[in-house]
Write a structure and sequence with these properties.
CATH superfamily of the largest domain: HUPs
Shape: elongated
Number of strands: 14
Order of helices and strands: EEHEHEEEEEEEHEHEHEHHEHHHHHHH
Number of helices: 14
Distance between the termini: 53 Å
Structural class: alpha/beta
CATH architecture of the largest domain: 3-Layer(aba) Sandwich
Strand order of the largest sheet: 1-2-3-4-7-8
């Protein structure tokens, strides 16, 4: 039954969360005599969500013909971020007041009460953030609240001189402050000197404490220990993964001693196709950019530099590389990221089939290869750290596939 309260200012109907997304509850409250509707929400952020909420409110107003106050939660909860943006929509569907996004506050709403009903007075309407700014704010809030609410004294991450770790470091500092963030540079025999230079420049620009801990001694010891078992076998990704796992051991040791949370730096493109090492670069407690496609990582880096330059331009311009073997680039193993991300957006986020993507103009061999990589690497994603959700279809809670399936080829 509809809930309607008698107040000195008129009759107020109450609804909760999903009531505003579905036809029925708002109209029923109006039929029960409500002159104003208040909707209490815990609506999580994803790209485009602000406009979706406003459209939903306008649909309900057309049904009930009374003003609606939409009150939304603000803060991070595990992988979800609630972005605020509470608002008031008049009986005519006009947006008459909206609180800022990603800012906690108390925002009074004034109404005129008359014999004909209750009308909200026009107030300040906060402008919704642009795409890159909104995503960045969500990532910062998600990291801040995960660290704060779980009692970690700070965060530590590996800083490689690449774009992903550079962006993750900036997010961590903006979320927690430089004094609570620690960076570790862990070069190997394959690390380019420019990577070391750029990583140090990033750490200094953001004012964080950093350590340089070469992994070559540990890598060499592992190779020697394994030599009797692996002798005569060809070099393959095993040697690359050992390097990544050496780095994971160092970061986790620092975390164990200091209590700081290890932030992993993998993006959604890598997570989708398994371009990562279990117990290596995937080792950690929270993954800030795990739902951010690689092409968006670059856009976020550019946006962050527009606020203050903290990521060297060379990091943005140079071809991405894991630097686990000589002259390596990501495109040795993957399609170009602009192509890969477009396919992943269709296959993962829009749930389009291989045939549908081929009909849209993509090469069948490439689409089938990407789809198979996504399917085969479900087992890795099951072991990945949680991270901020910014899209309508994130891996994990939004896209659940079996690890053992007949989808394999």
């Amino acid at each position: 039954d509809p809930v309607v309260f008698e107040t000195a200012g008129g009759r107020v109907g109450g609804t909760i969360c999903e009531d505003i997304w579905l036809p029925g509850p708002a109209a029923q409250a109006a039929e029960a005599g409500a002159q104003l509707l208040v909707n209490l929400n815990a609506s999580p952020y994803h790209t485009g969500k602000g406009e979706q909420r406003l459209m939903a409110l306008r649909r309900r107003v057309r049904e009930c013909h009374i003003p609606i106050i939409y009150v939304n939660l603000l803060g991070g909860q595990d992988e979800l971020v609630f972005d605020g943006g509470s608002m008031v929509v008049g009986a005519d569907g006009a947006l008459v007041q909206r609180a800022p996004f990603f800012v906690e506050g108390l925002y009074p709403v004034d109404f005129t009460v008359s014999a004909t009903g209750v009308e909200p007075e026009t107030g300040e309407v906060a402008v919704e953030s642009g795409l890159e700014e909104g995503i960045y704010q969500a990532l910062v809030l998600g990291v801040r609240d995960y660290v704060q609410k779980n009692g970690f004294p700070g965060a530590v991450l590996g800083l490689s001189g690449g774009i992903d770790s550079a962006l993750t470091l900036a997010i961590a500092v903006d979320a927690l402050g430089a004094e609570r963030v620690e960076a570790v540079l862990m070069p190997s025999r394959y690390t380019a000197e420019m990577s070391n230079t750029d990583a140090e420049q990033e750490a200094r620009a953001l004012g964080v404490k950093y350590h340089i801990m070469p992994i070559e001694p540990a890598f060499q010891v592992f190779l020697e220990i394994l030599q009797p078992v692996l002798a005569g076998l060809p070099v393959n990704s095993t040697e690359e993964n050992i390097q990544a796992r050496c780095r994971g051991v160092l970061l986790m040791a620092i975390s164990n001693k200091t209590g700081k949370l290890v932030l992993t730096t993998g993006n959604k493109s890598e997570t989708a196709v398994g371009y990562s090492t279990l117990y290596g670069d995937m080792a950690g407690g929270f993954a800030p950019i795990k739902d951010v496609l690689k092409t968006m990582v670059y856009r976020l880096a550019v946006w962050r530099n527009q606020q203050s330059p903290v990521i060297p331009q060379r990091v943005i311009d140079r071809p991405p590389s894991a630097e686990l073997r000589p002259e390596q680039t990501d495109q040795d193993s993957l399609p170009p990221y602009d192509l890969l991300d477009t396919i992943l957006h269709g296959y993962v986020e829009q749930d389009r089939s291989v045939d549908e993507l081929v009909e849209a103009g993509f090469d069948r061999d490439i689409v089938e290869r990407v789809a198979q990589l996504v399917i085969l690497n479900e087992y890795k994603r099951r072991q990945a750290a949680p991270g901020v959700r910014i899209t309508p279809r994130a891996f994990g809670r939004d896209r659940r596939y079996p690890m053992t399936s007949g989808f394999r080829r």
